Design the sequence.
């Protein structure tokens, strides 16, 4: 064979080998870097734990690399901590000037820097970051707003609840992020959420009711029961779901009445709630709904029936001509045995 | 603080949580055994019969609830007090923990000071 083909083949083979060598070298460098990082982290872990316990030694200084690694470990630990330990974390980050630096970065020109600062401030546990983070919820970039929302949740900033709900309703932040922030606030958010169930905007009432289901208690039942008569179906559905989640047995009568709601998704949420509170007196109503309602509410009723009264569910499934949902309820009850 | 060599088993699949809990308990004078999943926790508990088990609820292999149930069924381990460490603090989750046989629960994120008090209280009750 003559011509340029052998040369081209040779060149391609050489390029291929060079590429493999580069990839191998890159992998080796990364592995060495990772090993070094782990060694440094192991060495600094006791120092980080001392910081969590409030035993900061101001005389010890660290190299830039060590300081960065230490900050990362303490920030990671801080996500798992509450109470006095979080205050120690805040003292560490405030004392070393990290908090002020990240607050300044919230006004950086580059969006990634603002987002990174908003995220990091949540782990630094400093209450001083709350106000700047609330302002960051108005940032033009969604990732910055999301990071700020997450951090406000971690900081336990209950004053942020109305703004977080507003951001959720207007989709300024993703539902998952907003929900996580409010759930992280937990019982601290409860008071604010109770206030928001009376809001003029149905979307706000609905979101508040839904979240109250996660952070509320059976003591919130009476408030949620009033929402079962709300003009908005979304609100009634959210209230029914919340009553089930908080285990509000006192809501049984009101929930049974809501099985007559004109909207199928409200009836479905109500049946699920009755199942969650194990309301044995709802059995007959659930059988009827499983027999004759539309798909979603009938399926929800069948599931609730199987939870509340497995014997009745099995008996209903054995009746000749039993519908698909009652057969499903019977099968679920058998499985649960 | 000397705890007369009392042994505590701590099980969590999160290394950070494990490090923080172990640190608190060791500082308080307990001897600490660790496990990173439910099956390992059960095995360590059966082998060493600790004075207390602090178990994460959501662990690989076996959940904290399941480990507690297994401990309660075995005469050798049935009396080991259990504290569940859980991010799930809804009424139903807490009830499930107590139904499984847990003695107490601690919500995550947790306060090391609260952990210390709960551990002392549970060990004091037995």
Sequence:
């Amino acid at each position: 064979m003559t011509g340029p083909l052998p040369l081209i083949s040779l060149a391609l083979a050489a390029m291929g080998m060079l590429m493999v060598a580069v990839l191998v070298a890159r992998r080796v460098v990364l592995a060495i870097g990772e090993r070094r990082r782990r060694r440094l982290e192991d060495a600094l872990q006791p120092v980080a734990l001392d910081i969590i316990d409030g035993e900061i030694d101001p005389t010890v200084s660290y190299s830039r690399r060590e300081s960065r690694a230490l900050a990362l470990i303490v920030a990671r630990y801080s996500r798992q901590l509450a109470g006095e330990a979080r205050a120690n974390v805040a003292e560490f980050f405030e004392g070393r000037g990290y908090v002020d630096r990240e607050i300044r970065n919230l006004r950086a020109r580059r969006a990634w820097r603002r987002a990174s600062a908003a995220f990091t401030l949540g782990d630094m546990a400093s209450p001083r970051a709350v106000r700047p983070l609330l302002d960051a919820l108005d940032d033009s970039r969604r990732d910055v707003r999301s990071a700020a929302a997450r951090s406000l949740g971690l900081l336990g900033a209950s004053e942020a609840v109305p703004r977080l709900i507003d951001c959720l309703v207007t989709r300024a932040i993703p539902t998952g992020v907003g929900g996580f922030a409010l759930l992280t606030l937990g019982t601290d958010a409860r008071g604010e959420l109770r206030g928001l169930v009376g809001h003029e905007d149905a979307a706000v009432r609905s979101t508040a009711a839904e979240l109250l289901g996660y952070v509320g208690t059976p003591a919130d039942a009476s408030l949620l029961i009033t929402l079962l008569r709300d003009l908005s179906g979304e609100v009634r559905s959210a209230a029914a779901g919340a009553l089930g989640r908080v285990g509000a047995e006192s809501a049984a009568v009101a929930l049974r009445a809501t099985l007559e709601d004109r909207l199928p998704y409200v009836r479905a949420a109500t049946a699920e709630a009755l199942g969650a509170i194990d309301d044995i007196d709802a059995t007959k109503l659930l059988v009827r709904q499983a027999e004759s309602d539309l798909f979603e509410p009938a399926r929800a009723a069948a599931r609730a029936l199987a939870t509340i009264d497995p014997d009745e569910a099995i008996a209903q499934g054995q009746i000749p001509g039993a519908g698909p949902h009652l057969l499903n309820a019977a099968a679920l009850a058998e499985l649960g045995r | 603080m000397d705890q007369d060599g009392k042994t505590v088993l701590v099980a969590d699949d999160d290394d950070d949580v494990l490090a923080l809990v172990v640190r608190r308990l060791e500082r308080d004078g307990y001897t600490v055994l660790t496990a990173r999943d439910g099956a390992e926790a059960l095995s360590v508990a059966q082998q060493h019969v600790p004075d207390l088990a602090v178990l994460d609820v959501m662990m690989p292999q076996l959940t904290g609830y399941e480990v507690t149930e297994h401990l309660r069924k075995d005469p050798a381990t049935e009396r080991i007090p259990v504290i569940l460490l859980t991010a799930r603090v809804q009424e139903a989750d807490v009830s499930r923990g107590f139904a499984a046989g847990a003695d107490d629960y601690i919500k995550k994120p947790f306060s090391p000071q609260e952990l210390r008090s709960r551990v002392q209280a549970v060990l004091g009750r037995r």
Notes: Chain B has a mean pLDDT of 88. The CA atoms of residues 47 and 77 of chain B lie 10 Å apart. The two ends of chain B are 19 Å apart (CA to CA). DSSP finds five helices and five strands in chain B.
